[in-house]
Design brief:
CATH architecture of one domain: 2-Layer Sandwich
Shape: elongated
Number of strands: 12
Radius of gyration: 47 Å
CATH topology of one domain: Alpha-Beta Plaits
Strand content: 15-25%
Helix content: 25-40%
Oligomer: single chain
Length: 310
Amino acid sequence: MAAVAEGSRAASQAASAAAAAAAKESAYQKDVQKLVDLLSNLNPAAREFVPSSAAPPSKKALSADAPVFDYCSIGGANGGSRDSGVDSTYIGNQQHKMRSGYINHGRRRMNERARRADREDSIRRTVYVSELDHTVTEERLADIFANCGQVVDCRICGDPHSVLRFAFIEFSDEEGARAALNLGGTMLGFYPVRVLPSKTAILPVNPKFLPRTEDEKEMVIRTIYCTNIDKKVTQLDVKSFFQELCGEVSRLRLLGDNVHSTRIAFVEFVNAEGAIMALNCSGMILGTLPVRVSPSKTPVKPRINRVPSN
């Protein structure tokens, strides 16, 4: 009886061990299947990742298809072969561009030095005139200072509503500018002027507005430049003003903007005598303000009729 019970216990333990082994095998198979499913989602062409610290040193070898650089092929040595993979024409073009860039840069530097030298020379030949009566015109001022030397340019500046203004006068040489300094204290209008060496050059007139042909030069002789014009005055008012006092006006251009409180005009007469007479109109009242008249440096060019675009 005891032997039967012992045998039954052993069979039970064997059955339990077999069941546990079967369960363990089933779990193992499930884990393997999960791993297979996971690996199936990866890129089959992917390489194994190796940290840089564990990677073997690279020999940095070139590709077998990489071109061979031959210094001789670009003129580095005499008798070089042109069978290299480097495009010698391209390199030659790059070298030409570099040489051209250096040459152009050198030319720009030379041009800048030349312009700087011309500007400094112009400053030495220029005087600054201050406390200038507003009734004095550029023509009259140039005539007075012409006794010191040849006047190249004369430019009056300042607020048109101010009683006093200032001017820059450029001479053909430095001797004229030095002689002009002696005119300080001269009475021009109601005030004595001050004359000092200038610290700046006179800004030149835009060349595209200067007369280019003989006809345009002749037009300039018949043209005056009028400033400090009342904004309420019309172009017809300006034309009537000068025609009644000086003669027939052939062309007129009245200009202004929203920034300045007054306007300017270029008036061309039929005859040069009319332009000369108009210079005497400086200080006369047109509208509510006294106008200033001086010879024009530019002609009154006709307007270009633009064809409207579709």
